[in-house]
Fold each of these.
Amino acid sequence: MASIAAPVTHSPLRLTADSAALAANWRWLARASGSAACGAAVKANAYGLGAVEAAKRLYEAGCRDFFVATWAEAEEVLPAIGDASLSVLHGFASEDLQRAVASSARPVLNTVRQVQAWREAGQGRPCDVMIDTGINRLGLSATDVAGGLLDGLAIDTLMSHLACADEDHPLNGRQLAAFRDAAGRVGAKRLSLANSAGICLGADYAFDLTRPGLALYGGVPRGEAAGHIAQVARIEAQVVQRRRIGAGDSVGYNATFIAERPMELAILNIGYADGYLRGFSNSGSASIGGAQAPVVGRVSMDLTAIAVDAAPEAGEGDWIALDFDLPDAARQSGLSQYELLTVLGRRYQRRWT
Ligand SMILES: *Cc1c(COP(=O)(O)O)cnc(C)c1O
């Protein structure tokens, strides 16, 4: 087990990312993308797992197209991806223009101003373009594009982003039709529409390049991916104290759990400051050997109690794995699979197997 960026002092909680699972998820997504190339969204520090480490492993798996949100992220990732292509999804603020022109990463132009600025300052360098086909978040409208706004630009990838691909929603088909229409009017080397969930919608949505993020990191965006996507992130915390409580005793802030019988508890060194948010109060769980250990009471800032009657051996200093399969943890906590990963805090010792 290779440990990267080991902290000088001991950390009582750790986040272990599984390199083989990451690569296997990318390969499944690449197969599901058919003849389209399969890229990888490594924005937001690869959804919290570590952008450089994730990008290196994805490159080794064969990925040659990466996506980040900002230029700070681009500068971090570029050295890890050799000759691969990197797109910066937010385009650029005027403060970023010079570094964008000097960079081997491409800006994704989203606004009329970005297009004009790139035309003036971009020295004919390649760019990507985002068309908004209905999410109403980022991108040029069909009307923006109709007047020849993009003529003469060296567009590598023309892209759009799906709003509801994780559901069977009529907007999916409407966005597909609008994207095809835009693709017929704008000259670009490649077309790209699908995120993780969009890949599951089938070949019509794949075009030349797909852009999965969540499913690389163990998220299951739609039923089609269930059973094919492996868990990547595992979180473990050490037991700080074991204690016995009696019938009628309460646990934690605001006494939201009251024991009906004598119980054994283990108090874990993890809390909402670590991204194990309060939604797991009285609903999360840990696994110890084969035994389930439910979270009891409220998750507090740095500590969480679990019931360990079924694990008589678990004691101070033992490492306990919280259940963190993303679809299950999303149901337990009420958080989205995206939030579960991206809120994990800074106190973990992060390592890759
Ligand atoms: C984040 C993002 C993706 C990846 O989406 P997932 O749902 O995580 O697969 C793809 N494209 C764009 C434009 C994004 O912002």
Note: The longest helix spans residues 170-185.
Amino acid sequence: MTDFAQHLQAVHERMAAAARNAGRDPHSVALLAVSKTFPAEDVRAAHAAGQRAFGENYVQESVDKIEALDDLRASLEWHFIGPLQSNKTRLVAERFDWVHSVDRLKIAERLSAQRPAGMAPLNVCLQVNVSGEASKSGVTTQEAPEVARAIAALPRLRLRGLMSIPEPQDTLEAQRAPHRELRALFDALNAQGFALDTLSMGMSADLEAAVLEGATIVRVGTAIFGARDYAH
Ligand SMILES: *Cc1c(COP(=O)(O)O)cnc(C)c1O
């Protein structure tokens, strides 16, 4: 087995164990492999090991990677998960299947306007700044219903759910608290009539906590590809 296949299997085992502990079906949690800073050939190797969904943070890096992997396009799903500036939305709208990091209405409006007519609507998550958020982006839980309503009305987007990036914590209990907060917001929005099916939360260090609190997509980089080297 290749390293990637081994790492992917280990991550799937962690996800399944957490799902069982939560009384959830292991198939209700999907793995997004976060390939930022890693070359296209690593994505190709992970794809050969069965992985289909990949997450990217940097627009130019991902555009080059998607192009280099064009021969696999039909069996790859690309998710943009990084900070998105308005002057870069077109590149993302034209190339990605999902955007998890929609953190303001203006970005959503641009993505909808720029999504090509021949493509399926772009799947999006609203990024929420839960307590102890690592990045300072994202709407507050108070703002979320109004922004979500406006996004859900945009013609070329499909609002799928919520995403967050909490501050790293050492204990399982501390890791669970912000995930529980996002889950509560998710339930409240669905009670108000939204039909959200996606909770994008949990990374290499806290995926168990996220699955215990209801994550449907965990975003895992380091545990699959190894430590990132930002010097390159
Ligand atoms: C880099 C990144 C991840 C993956 O983090 P790891 O700790 O390497 O698993 C997940 N989500 C977002 C938004 C990221 O930027």
Note: The mean pLDDT is 96.
